[in-house]
Amino acid sequence: MKAVVFDWDGTLVDSQRAYLDSWRIALAAAGHEITSSDLQYAAGRAFPDVLHHFSAQLSVDPKKVEHEFRKDFPSRIQAEIVRFPDAVTCAQELQENGVDLAIATQTPRTEFDRALAVTGLNGLITTTVCRTEVARPKPAPDLYLEVCRRLEREPADCLAIEDSPVGAASARKAGLFVVGIARSAQAVNGLNDAANTVVEKLDSGMILRFCET
């Protein structure tokens, strides 16, 4: 492996709570109490796809839901986003060992750049691709194919780190080797089906062993 590509939300940082809280508030305003299956569907998916899904399944007004979601989401992200120490340490040590790093995220560019600056990780990983820069979101392979193009690496020479089955499927379709990071017990089963291997904590030594093969 010549490069490591991190997913953003749920892998390097935890902004999932803010994301799902904003969905809960937006759907409540439209008269729907969000369920665990709703949350499971939204996790790891791009906003437009989740909005389309809820609009079709719940018969809610998409314009009203989007307005409610975006009303306080930026401030919620800035207040609630948290870095995962194991992932940040792993990325720092990989960089020190000369491994190319990148991020492939479902987050739109404007929101991502704002969140990246808040976390202070903008100096660590400079190659990034956002949902708004490719034709199709995860689970399509577009994000990972574009990352590999920018890194000037073949997908088979790259390793992806993902926390969701949706993201893992995207990376696998693109041809990357996928390490699933199970941040919760519920995530294990889905990641076992989608990733090449699943771990409970990120460790640069383990990743570097792949990079040496």
Strand count: 8
- What's the domain count? 2
Q: Whole-number average pLDDT?
A: 89
What is the CATH H-level superfamily of the largest domain?
Answer: HAD superfamily/HAD-like
Which residues sit in consecutive blocks of at least 5 with pLDDT less than 50?
A: none
Spatial order of the strands in the main sheet? 5-4-1-6-7-8
CATH architecture of the largest domain: 3-Layer(aba) Sandwich
Helix content bin: 40-55%
Q: From the 3D structure, determine the CATH topology of the largest domain.
A: Rossmann fold
Give the overall shape.
Answer: globular
Describe this protein's structure.
- One of its GO terms (molecular function) is hydrolase activity.
- InterPro entries: HAD-like_sf (IPR036412), HAD-like_SPP (IPR051806), HAD-SF_hydro_IA (IPR006439), HAD_sf (IPR023214), PGP-like_dom2 (IPR023198).
- It comes from Actinoallomurus acaciae.
- Keywords: Hydrolase.
- This is HAD family hydrolase.
- With 213 residues, this protein is α/β, with parallel strands linked by helices.
- It has two domains: 3-15 and 81-212, Rossmann fold (3-Layer(aba) Sandwich); 16-80, DNA polymerase, domain 1.
- The protein is 53% helix and 15% strand.
- It is built from ten helices and eight strands.
- A six-stranded parallel beta sheet has the order 5-4-1-6-7-8, with helices on both faces.
- Helix 8 links the parallel strand 6 and strand 7 (177-181).
- Helix 8 packs parallel to helix 9 (187-194).
- The longest helix has 19 residues, at 62-80.
- The chain is globular, with a radius of gyration of 17 Å.
